[in-house]
Design goal:
Blueprint (H helix, E strand, L loop, with lengths): L2 H22 L4 H27 L4 H12 L6 H14 L4 H13 L3 H11 L6 H17 L3 H6 L1
Helix pairs in contact: 1-3, 2-3, 3-4, 3-5, 4-5, 5-6
Amino acid sequence: MSTARGRLAAKLFAGLVVLLLVVGMGPCLWRARRGSAIRRQLIREERDLEKIVEAEPHNVEAHARLGNLLLAHGAASSERAIRLLRRAIELDPDYGWAYKDLAAAYVFSGDVDMGMEWMKKAEPLFSKDTEKVLYYLDLGALCEHVGQFDKAVVA
């Protein structure tokens, strides 16, 4: 994996952490203000990525990152996320992060079987230990999300 992909993977992981923070925010006023700042940052990032995707239609990372951000918006944006992530895979069939995020998009849109198929396709694309750890964490989270607790424990 290239250094650029490694940096992107780190950014994707950081984005996931930010997303988890936004989702986990409680009713506390400080947290609400902090959550608003994070949401504004995500909206700005989404707009910036939209511009990049339009200007650079062959930019794999921009397609994948925008698809990942759209997953945070829930089911209403999952179809667009799926299109963007499929495009990223067309542009670079070895880009495992797009496969993994595509799997999540399918699961969140209700197509669990398709999501799990894409997760299976993603696994061999991760060679570094840190990548595999993130892959198995996400696989476990997806299995838990759909109530497949036995598979989540194995993952």
